[in-house]
Amino acid sequence: MTASGGNELRFLYFSGLVSLLMSGSAFADAGQVAIGPVPQWVTASDPMPVPAGAGGAAFLRRQDVLVHLDEQGPQDYMGYRVRILQPNALELGNIAITWNPAAGAPVVHAIRIYREGEVIDVLKTANFEVLRREDQLEAARLDGMLTAVLRVGDLRVGDELEVSYTTRIKDPTLGNLDSGSLFVGASPSPGRYHIGLSWDEGAKPNLKMTPDMTLLAQTSERAVDFRLDNPRPANPPKDAPLRFQWQRIVEFSDFADWTTVSQRMAPLFAETARLSANSPLKQEARRIMAANPTPMGRASAALKLVQQNVRYVYVGLDRGNLTPAGADETWQRRYGDCKAKTVLLLALLGEMGIEAEPVLVNNNGFDDGLDQRLPGPRMFDHVLVRARIGGVAYWLDGTLPAVAGPGTEPAVPYRWVLPLSAKGSALEHIPWHQAKRPDLVSTTEIDARQGFVQPAHVVSTMVLRGIKGLQQQMQFAPVPPDQLLNAFRQNLVGGQWQTVEDVQWHYDEAAQASVLTVTGTWKIDWEDDGKGARSLALPGGGFSPPDRRGRASDQNQDLPYYNPPSYNCYATTVRLPLDTRSRQWSSKPGYDVHMFGQNYYRAFALRDGAIRMIRGFRVEQTEIDAATARKDNDRIAGFDNSLGYIFFNSQGQATPIPAAPNVPATYDIDWTADNVPCLSVAALEKNG
């Protein structure tokens, strides 16, 4: 969760519940806001004087974000006092507190206005209104959170608003093990900031700080505090991998290691995957086995059953945040989150004798450097299944569309994952490999055989893989063909497209690709170069020069630079006007350039009355060292960023189009195949 009085200082906390016992009155009051004193463990900051000529909408005189660990779990204190300087800061009077009622009610300590020596107690005349908050219902999320809102009346420019409250954070699945982090944002507004962690005797967690926080730490026997006045912006090193961008962060954890996390989480999935004696899932497993003689066929069928017959709904109600729903329960209600779908799939595979395990992963790409973090289960945001079939590991994700079957690689390029096992498993690194096939293939066939003036018949095809391909599948699958055709006509005609005659879409499960083909006519914009000469820039034929890699002088110059994984391919074929000859045509040069860990490739060929062009780009290294970056910076000036021009001259060309090897026409090969020639022969032979 995130709790903050503004955007300047944030607190991110992950926790488990120490005690499951709560009194009846606590349950009754959990849906209301309580009023009470500040806890004894809180030491609030003294307000910082407002400087003369303070700018901005408001000045933060103090903000305290404090966490305390006791036998009942963690508590989160938030307190701030802010001077209103401009009218647009009056919205700070709209106070909202969000909490999980399973953890107990929040306790508000004070809401006051300071005005010209007068102190106004807002709580004497205003009350909180409690709302049931399912603000992400459209995204299929049920989290059970409550929100209390209070609108401070008669708040004026020049007033100071003070707010303080405490909430308890509990998850009833991890026993007495807690983990979390506190951090100061990268660009805080001027003011006084205080973050801190304290604990009861015997509850001290493991601590880890970034170097900038180590310098600020004020440590005592049962607490660590960090105080900052007017903190400077913390600029992460430009273009560095994510693990180098952790700044002003304090981690804490009760887990000894990642094996302990694995061992603690594993029983949650093992217990909920057990089927009752009369479970209908046993019959489903028998049906799948009868229809599919091989383990792979059975695993695929079980996965598709979970994907198709159980809709995805995130469930975080009460014990649902980390504890999965049972397999029988999920099958009965036919909805569940990633945990529920994983449990259901584990139950089916177990019933069929297929070895499988749950694996925690991070879908947001924040797992770079996870091995350097303190262990905690909420460093992950997703769970899926890894099954072993014929000695090979396959990844199965029940939350993906039913066209996504078992794969030897997960759909998301994870860096670190955590298998869950009864004996405990260590954090596991997933090595990155450069892509064997493009994520995107875009082919364009331009039939200009009727001449330069007549519209050209065009067939444009896009082959999209990975998560983007699955997203397109989810977007297009429900749309009837006539509606799809009409939508493309409405959006395309009037631009380059003169007509859209047909739109065909399908998802190729064997190729794991979404395939979209649009057919129609273009008005080709041949450029008149004078004296009977013409030219045309082929779609997808050029590259922008790569960006120079460098950092500000106050940043570490020796850190590596990051390249997001990518592999794309553009293939264009132009069927030439029938009244022209091959010797009248030429093109821009091709090239095969390797810079900044990336391969830039372009090639042309002229054969059978058609010019063929392929332009490919692939990341060969996701990280390049600083020395290589500096060397390649000097090469940028020589980079050929010309568009993929072809040229016609009625008098003939001095330099014909070179016959580059392995440059097929768009209609020569299946572009959904694994071995499409989107890079040079040498690059494909060297790197695969």
UniProtKB/TrEMBL annotation:
InterPro entries according to UniProt: DUF3857 (IPR024618), Papain-like_cys_pep_sf (IPR038765)
Assigned keywords, A-Z: Signal
DUF3857 domain boundaries: 80-221
Top-level taxonomic group: Bacteria
SUPFAM superfamilies per record: Cysteine proteinases
Keyword check for Signal: yes
DNA-binding in keyword set: no
Spans annotated as Disordered: 535-558
Signal sequence annotation: 1-28
Pfam families, alphabetized: DUF3857
Listed name of the protein: Transglutaminase-like protein
